[in-house]
Amino acid sequence: MMSQLADLLLSPDDMAAVDRAAAASGIDSYGLMEKAGQAVAASALRHFPEALRYVVLCGPGNNGGDGYVAALALQQSGAVMRLFYLGDPKKLKGDAARAFADCPVVGETMARYSPRPGDIVIDAIFGAGLSRSVPDEVAAVIAEITEARLPVIAVDLPSGLDGRSGQVLGTAFRAVRTVTFMTRKPGHLLMPGRDLCGVLEVFDIGIPARIVRAQANGMIAENTPAQWQADLPTAATDTHKYKRGHLVVFSGGATVTGAARMSAMAGLKAGAGLVTIASPEQALAVNAGLLTAIMLRVVDDETALRAWLADQRLSTFVLGPGFGAGEKARQFVLALSERHLVLDADGITSFRDDPQRLFDAFADGPTRLVLTPHEGEFARLFPDIAADNTLSKVEKARAAAARAHAAIIYKGADSVIAAPDGRALINANAPSWLATAGSGDVLAGIIGGLMTQGAPAFEAAAAGVWLHGVAGQRAAKGLTAEDLVAHVTPF
What we know:
By secondary structure, the chain is of the alpha/beta class. It has helices at residues 12-24, 29-47, 62-76, 94-102, 136-148, 186-189, 193-197, 209-216, 258-269, 284-288, 302-308, 327-335, 346-349, 355-361, 375-381, 383-387, 393-404, 439-452, 457-475, 481-486, and strands at 53-58, 81-85, 108-109, 119-124, 152-155, 177-181, 199-203, 220-222, 246-250, 274-279, 295-298, 314-319, 340-343, 369-371, 406-410, 416-418, 424-426.
């Protein structure tokens, strides 16, 4: 059965703590291993009934123990199977040793395995129990199986994949299916781990939810509506446009106005009551000729902006899309330090030489700043964090959010949204075709539209990323940013 805890994400260390807590509570740990291995065998038989033989590769730890249980279950089902092991199985300890002793299948050393057409490989070598590059013997087997294009079912995680970061430790299997237990790990969602896991099954082996949730602490999860829906504003029957907030998007010069218009329209479609593009005089005619529901105002310099800010109804701003990097962007951002701001693209790059100046401006009070960096922009604002290869993408985003006192969207195929208090969400609903020019401008506008209605910065950022993914799914392959805007809808 599928686990009801599959929304949670636990690191390998946290999951090991769950196992220990379960054993300490009196739960039969070997019984849990039996359920895990049997779930793997059941998945193999269910999804690959055409296999000419099932090949189980067992490692030197508990992941190997799951493999021995799976091998026994496959043999008892009458399937043709072979077993190969890494190291000396007689040196196994604990439950893994018992699983080996209970398995009557005679195995051979892993080096003796020769792939055959029709093999279905069950990878029970390392799972989440690996923190270094795979040994040469395993790397050679992975290479042979990959070259033979054999289907691989991974137990817990494809061997060679780091469950904390989703990164490959030297080399790794590319599984067609991965069977994990109780809940997922960050490496199941972070790239390239998500691609290497194939179809993911989360199987409930009987550890009480209270034990699992005690270790999860709710700080890391997949980005889904369950994480932020309750914090989004809902429209009352007596609402009007002013109650839904006034969003301002800054335009660049006459030849670079399109990004701001797409961002502004996304904010309007996300629910903002009013949206104004703040345009330099030189771009006024271009913007005026292409706007209908969106208002327009001339804002040429910092003086004009500060005068306009006397209107307290201007609650949320988007700066960056097509704006241009430089001193003007810095002046505008610092003038907005008391308001809610989504800073994107050129706005981020403008602070590459002095990011602390940006962080200091938004350091006090509730989180008002949302930063949306891609890989390169993240490195410009947080060079030391970006360069630390010991950190996962989640850990980098969390460290950046704490330093900047901002909600961080560390963009990519596996965008991570982090809050200054340590909460982090990994987004998994974005289709690959969202990687197109102008897509980020639309995202910034959606987030601004949610914030101007009263959504907190982190929740607006997370909801914006999710809604952006939904819009991409609706627009389908071949979308342009204009198509994407047309498919933006509020939650």
